[in-house]
């Protein structure tokens, strides 16, 4: 036995020396070999877990008369977008107010609409955009802009995670993509999976610093007036990693599905995949068996820097960012054929994409300082 092996136990030698030497070691079946093959979707699973504190915490806000609806948040909008013009040919390009447009503290990422939430396209009769921002400086937090598309006025709401029967804490994640489905807001949690927030429990809090319950028994959320609490999570199960970078709803699938995509800047040894998980429209959760959600479809794609996308069953629209001064590209793809590029279709910094079936429009937001638009493009995708 040579010196290097001397410290290694016989059990290791039995199990692993053979594997190291053997060319027949099974590769991870979730990996991408050719780069554009279909994968066995049964290997992609998420475990459902409910937040057990939410029901008790909800009772406290209900008893205090501190529960709000989506309409009430929209009617209390305290900021205004302005109409702009953006590179490419969007049908509408809206700018945040100047503070939100130029801040380096908050970075916009995810986009969804009332067209994802309900097939009618409206929620409580309102036409709404939701956009997620992660906090890039100071503490980690995520806020969601509720935009009333009738007025283009908006208000930010802070995401929180119930952490005790009488308290909540910050949600310190990247929030790259969001998808609204009924009363559930799905938010990606990069290496972990998805978190779900409960649109039936928007709470009003006191305007002051700090997130959670104060020593005086009040609730605050870093001076935001409303919080949206987490109700459950779906956690990635496999030992090999998956990057949950962005998410969208596919209403052309049966059942409806959530499409999740991976962002990678290099494909050396890293798979780039698209996966669909089945939604249950009766309770707005992911369909599962004893809490385990199994994907309905999984595929490799050879597109770097994919920041967002949506599918209409077999037609995929995907956005690729380049850099802050170069327009982003749009790819269209159907499995079995090669992807087609529309170079410079989107402005620089394209992010999450979302399709609105009721209005035959799709949306995205762009992230770079001073170049932050919410964009709408007309187009029917069957
Ligand atoms: C989560 O809560 C729902 C009810 O809202 C329940 O039906 C489901 O079984 C729970 N999931 C788990 C994994 O406990
Ligand atoms: C499209 O829908 C058909 C029928 O529901 C299904 O078999 C197929 O897997 C779907 N394609 C994708 C890419 O989801």
Write out key terms for the chains shown.
disordered N terminus; 5 helices; single chain; 14-stranded mixed sheet; 42% strand; 30 strands; binds 2-acetamido-2-deoxy-beta-D-glucopyranose; five-stranded antiparallel sheet; Secreted protein
Overview of the structural elements:
This protein has 382 residues and is mainly beta. Helices cover 10% and strands 42% of the residues. The chain has five helices and 30 strands. Strands 2, 3, 4, 7, 8, 9, 10, 11, 12, 13, 14, 15, 18 and 22 form a 14-stranded mixed sheet that branches. The chain is globular. The model is unreliable at 1-23 (pLDDT under 50). Residues 253-254, 276, 297, 313-314, 335 line the site of one 2-acetamido-2-deoxy-beta-D-glucopyranose. It comes from Aspergillus nanangensis. Residues 1-26 form the signal peptide. This is Secreted protein. Keywords: Signal.
Question: Which secondary structure elements does this structure contain, and how are they paired or packed?
Answer:
Layout: H1 10-21, E1 38-39, E2 45-50, H2 54-63, E3 67-68, H3 70-75, E4 79-80, E5 82-83, E6 92-95, H4 98-102, E7 106-113, H5 114-117, E8 128-135, E9 142-148, E10 153-164, E11 167-170, E12 178-181, E13 184-189, E14 193-198, E15 202-204, E16 211-213, E17 219-221, E18 226-236, E19 246-250, E20 257-261, E21 273-278, E22 292-294, E23 297-300, E24 306-312, E25 315-320, E26 328-333, E27 340-346, E28 350-356, E29 361-366, E30 373-378
Parallel strand pairs: 10-18
Antiparallel strand pairs: 1-23, 2-18, 2-22, 3-15, 4-10, 5-6, 6-30, 7-8, 8-9, 9-10, 10-11, 12-13, 13-14, 14-18, 15-18, 16-17, 19-20, 20-21, 21-23, 24-25, 25-26, 26-27, 28-29, 29-30
The protein binds 2-acetamido-2-deoxy-beta-D-glucopyranose (NAG) (2 copies).
The site of one 2-acetamido-2-deoxy-beta-D-glucopyranose has 4 residues, from strand 2.
């Amino acid at each position: 036995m040579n010196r290097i092996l001397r410290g290694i136990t016989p059990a290791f030698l039995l199990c692993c020396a053979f594997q190291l030497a053997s060319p027949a070691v099974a590769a991870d079946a979730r990996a991408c070999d050719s780069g554009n093959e279909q994968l066995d979707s049964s290997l992609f699973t998420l475990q459902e877990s409910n937040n057990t504190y939410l029901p008790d915490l909800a009772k406290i806000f209900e008893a205090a008369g501190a529960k709000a609806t989506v309409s009430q948040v929209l009617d209390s909008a305290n900021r205004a977008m302005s109409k702009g013009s953006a590179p490419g040919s969007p049908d509408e390009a809206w700018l945040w107010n100047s503070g939100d447009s130029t801040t380096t503290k908050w970075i916009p990422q995810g986009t969804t609409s009332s067209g994802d939430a309900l097939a009618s396209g409206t929620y409580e009769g309102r036409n709404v955009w939701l956009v997620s921002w992660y906090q890039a400086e100071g503490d980690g937090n995520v806020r969601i802009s509720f935009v009333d598309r009738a007025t283009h006025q908006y208000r930010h709401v802070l995401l929180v995670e119930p952490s005790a029967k009488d308290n909540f804490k910050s949600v310190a994640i990247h929030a790259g993509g969001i998808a609204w489905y009924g009363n559930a807001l799905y938010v990606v949690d990069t290496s972990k999976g998805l978190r779900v927030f409960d649109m039936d429990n928007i709470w009003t809090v006191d305007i002051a610093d700090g997130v959670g319950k104060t020593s005086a028994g009040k609730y605050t959320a870093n001076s935001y007036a409303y919080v949206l609490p987490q109700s459950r999570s779906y956690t990635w199960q496999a030992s090999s990693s998956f990057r949950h970078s962005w998410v969208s709803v596919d209403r052309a699938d049966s059942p409806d599905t959530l499409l999740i995509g991976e962002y990678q800047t290099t494909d050396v040894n890293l798979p780039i995949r698209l996966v669909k998980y089945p939604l249950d429209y009766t309770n707005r959760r992911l369909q599962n068996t004893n809490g385990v959600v199994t994907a309905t479809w999984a595929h490799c794609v050879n597109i770097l820097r994919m920041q967002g996308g949506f599918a209409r069953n077999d037609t995929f629209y995907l956005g690729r960012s380049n850099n802050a001064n170069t327009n982003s590209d749009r790819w269209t793809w159907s499995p079995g054929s090669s992807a087609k590029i529309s170079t410079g279709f989107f402005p620089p910094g394209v992010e999450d994409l979302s399709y609105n079936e009721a209005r035959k429009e799709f949306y995205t937001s762009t992230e770079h300082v001073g170049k932050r638009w919410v964009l709408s493009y007309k187009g029917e995708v069957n």
